[in-house]
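RECORD TYPE: protein structure
NAME: NADH-ubiquinone oxidoreductase chain 3
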Amino acid sequence: MKLLFYSLVCFALLLVLCLVVYAISFSLEKSFEDKGGSFECGFQPFSGSGFTFSMPFFVISLMFLLFDVEILLVCFYPLFYSFSFYSSLIIWLVLFFVLLATLFEWFKGVLSWV
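PREDICTED:
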């Protein structure tokens, strides 16, 4: 029984070793120069891949996510819970924090380009 177990373990290790050697040899054989280049739907890129990151676009996308979550909280919260003093307080707190965050961004100059 031990002989069968040891032979299966040796076979499994040999198989893993063969697969690793095959993968390494295949990756070294196919080292193209285009692996590090950008990919645009199968065509050659029109310009270099060193574009600068657009910070205003990033800020707008974050604000969109913030307001999207705020709309979900404000609009759908009363549908799932009974509308009481506490639920209206939570809605007003969410609106207050969103307004406070928007004013903070505005005074810090993040929204100066808008």
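COMMENT: The mean pLDDT is 76.
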